[in-house]
Amino acid sequence: MSFNNNLDQLYRSVIMDHYKNPRNKGSLEDESVTIDMNNPTCGDRIHLTLKVEDGIVQDAKFDGEGCSISMSSASMMTQIVKGRKKEEALELAEIFSKMMLGEEFDVDKYDLGDVEALQGVAKFPARIKCATLAWKAMEKGVKSDNE
Fold it and tell me: Nearest 5°: phi and psi at 145?
């Protein structure tokens, strides 16, 4: 088995782990920003709640339904933005968008952790909207929060 096959297998298992055992599933109450978005092309839906205080994403939870790419991406996104400044969360969304489009991005700026497992999605243009849905919801939520 080649290195790329091993890497693809690892990435698939990371994606399936987040799909079967989603992190931060649920919703936040009180003073949280709520964003509902869907992908009408394939039916993916996300309900994202963010708690932003003092310019920092204190907490993030999601609910919804969709394919393994969509739901695992939401799980990974909520993990990586928690505790980040709003500006950092938006930068991460920009990096993720570049990754999905196969563009160059600064790999050393942030440790993307499990999010790297989604880079193979760039090879499947029809699935990019699945992967980016949660990130677009997060961007909308962070930008709409006017503390």
Answer: -75, 110
Q: Is 84 in contact with 104 (CB distance < 8 Å)?
A: no
pTM (2 d.p.): 0.93
Question: How far is it, in rounded angstroms, from Cα 138 to Cα 123?
Answer: 24
What domains sit in the chain, N to C, each tagged with a CATH number? 3-144 (3.90.1010.10)
From CA 21, how far away is CA 41, in angstroms rounded? 25
pLDDT at 125: 92
Let me know if 28 is exposed, middle or buried by CB neighbors in 10 A (0-12, 13-18, 19+): middle
Residue 82 Cα distances to 3, 42, 89, 108, 138, angstroms: 32, 28, 9, 19, 11
